[in-house]
């Protein structure tokens, strides 16, 4: 079954055509990687899935019937699509636990706002769920640390916890290992693999690091200059001359 279907998506910024007739089909339960050189349009495409950008033309359909075009970011989130952006978006002045409690409560109550965080203290159910998630991601011992002071790797892990606690069906990750050491990168790969298997979450991963892509992906779409130029298994993509040309020649 297709969990995400992208058809004929175009997006221009002034005279610059960032996406040109993009088609993409993501199978439920798989890891689908989107790779491509810098400026290929990967983040632009992801932004079209989460309500940050509206395509000029084309459709983005979730779970067979739900059009994501025109929905607000929080509405898309409520349908079960969660995202981790290229730059971690966390509440830097709050503790790790508080950061995870906010989306936990948002999931339950349908609101996501910093101004409600003081209410969190009293909410045992939300606290327990958030704590459980932190244990699962190996962050429990740091729960009282102020998020802004965390290492880059831990910030990314925290952001992942904030997404997962909302029980998404589809998780979108924009360069989840960017700026990480090799050790942190490998931990993140393990984590993402484990998450997929245990929770049955479909993942779309934008990634620069080929080690990550080939470790994780079931299917790869290669984007170059706003167009999908190749698609297939990691094995097929590895040997595809168009892909090598896009990376090396262009
Ligand atoms: P990638 O994520 O693959 O590196 P992007 O999607 O960020 O690429 O960018 C694709 C192209 O669109 C680039 O040429 C970039 O400069 C341009 N672009 C992206 N966002 C904007 C924007 N908000 N305004 C103008 N141009 C943009
Ligand atoms: Mg990008």
UniProtKB/TrEMBL annotation:
One of its GO terms (cellular component) is plasma membrane. This is ABC transporter ATP-binding protein. InterPro entries: AAA+_ATPase, ABC_AA/LPS_Transport, ABC_transporter-like_ATP-bd, BCA_ABC_TP_C, P-loop_NTPase. It comes from the Bacteria. SMART domains: AAA. The lineage of its organism: Bacteria, Pseudomonadati, Pseudomonadota, Alphaproteobacteria, Hyphomicrobiales. GO terms for molecular function: ATP binding; ATP hydrolysis activity. CDD domains: ABC_Mj1267_LivG_branched. Keywords: ATP-binding, Nucleotide-binding, Transport. Residues 4-250 form the ABC transporter domain. It holds the Pfam family ABC_tran. It comes from Roseibium limicola.
């Amino acid at each position: 079954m297709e969990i995400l279907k992208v058809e004929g998506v175009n997006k221009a910024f002034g005279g610059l055509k960032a996406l040109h007739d993009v088609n993409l089909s993501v199978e439920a339960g798989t890891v689908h990687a989107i790779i491509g050189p810098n400026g290929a349009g990967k983040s632009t495409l992801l932004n079209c899935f989460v309500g940050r950008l509206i395509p000029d033309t084309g459709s983005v359909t979730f779970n067979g019937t739900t059009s994501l075009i025109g929905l607000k970011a929080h509405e898309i989130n409520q349908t079960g699509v969660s995202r981790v952006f290229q730059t971690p978006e966390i509440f830097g002045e709050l503790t790790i636990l508080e950061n995870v409690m906010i989306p936990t409560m948002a999931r339950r109550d349908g609101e996501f706002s910093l101004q409600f965080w003081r209410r969190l203290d009293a909410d045992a159910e939300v606290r327990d769920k958030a704590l459980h998630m932190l244990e699962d991601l190996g962050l429990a011992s740091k729960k009282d640390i102020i998020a802004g002071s965390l290492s880059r790797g831990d910030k990314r892990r925290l952001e992942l916890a904030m997404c997962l606690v909302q029980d998404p069906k589809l998780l979108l990750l924009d360069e989840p290992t960017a700026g990480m050491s090799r050790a942190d990168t490998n931990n993140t790969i393990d984590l993402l693999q484990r998450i997929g298997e245990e929770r049955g979450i479909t993942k779309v991963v934008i990634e620069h690091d080929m080690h990550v892509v080939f470790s994780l992906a079931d299917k790869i779409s290669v984007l170059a200059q706003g167009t999908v130029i190749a698609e297939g298994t990691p094995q097929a993509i590895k040997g595809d001359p168009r892909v090598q040309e896009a990376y090396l020649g262009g």
